[in-house]
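Annotated sample (chain length 354).
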Amino acid sequence: DLNKAVLTGIAANQAPDVAQCVETDAAKYNSSKALADLTPYINAADGLGSADLKDIFPVMLSAARINGTYFQFPFNKSTTVVYYNQDMFAAKGISSPPATWDEFFSDATKLADPAKGVTGIEGPSIDTFLSMLYEYGGQLYDSPSNPTKATINSVAGVKAMTLWSNAIKSGAAKPIPAGAFADEVDFQNQKTAMYISTQVSYQFLVKPIGNKFKFAEAAFPAGDNGVKDEMFGANMCVFNKSSQDVQHGALLYIKYLTSQASTTEWAQKTSYMPVRQSAFATLQSGFYAQNPSQGVGAGMLNKGDLIVLPSTPTSNEQRDALSTELGNIAAGREDPKTGLDKAASKMTDIMTTG
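Output written by the structure step:
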């Protein structure tokens, strides 16, 4: 994949000039000082002025900085939504999508129909769990800026996974099946009534579903502390091995990609969030007004409900360890407390040893 190719290039001193990079990957690249500081090019006469920077959503600019420095710039950003089968909801007398996790699992129970091979939901994915962790008052690490240990095994984490564990035991939910995008395919084939994924998944649902059934998007459900929906997706990174002229040119390319016209068109055609507030306003009065479901994810930007998880150079390895234990919990091989204790221990060991 792209991350592996970039890491191979960095090791061979053949990194690309510019590439998309998610925050967890960028933290790894920056640990070997492979990323260029974009600040001089942003501040250049032909860079991005103060009006441009004020137009970029603050949560995106904040996520692009590593220790306060622009080693990334926002581009492909998205968040999590709930896709739901409107026909199934209507058949069960459910008039609106769930706004809270209590409503979510109650609806999943009503929607499950074992005789027809239908379950309410498949999950949880790692990112669904992490958002729920924050919604119930927890956090990923003991400190977001200087982490020393993982804290996903807090009361909040156990509560989130207990909700899923109980739903799976009752038949309202199932673990996500093996295979690439298997839960997406199950939703397309009406084997599940709901599907949790990014807003970009709309592009991969609309054609396969066609006229088989009506579906829509709803906002990520709230926990005890409200909605804390994780924002993820790619930024643009420029690499240090390139000359300053090339780095400058890369920033100008990024400037074009994130212009109001470009990000408006990109959001409309791909379902990613626009990076500019002016673009969001344009979409809100036009495209999103005509296609309200596709505005759900981007609408989170104005509600203050998005969170950005802290990243470390070993975030990807830690995610792998957490995913394994979440799978064990979902499959019933471990109870939530035991599984999350193991995950936290493994994540802390990885963070400590590198």
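Annotation: The beta strands are 18-21, 65-66, 69-70, 73-85, 121-122, 173-174, 194-198, 215-219, 229-238, 306-307.
Annotation: The domain at 2-77+230-297 is CATH 3.40.190.10 (D-Maltodextrin-Binding Protein; domain 2).
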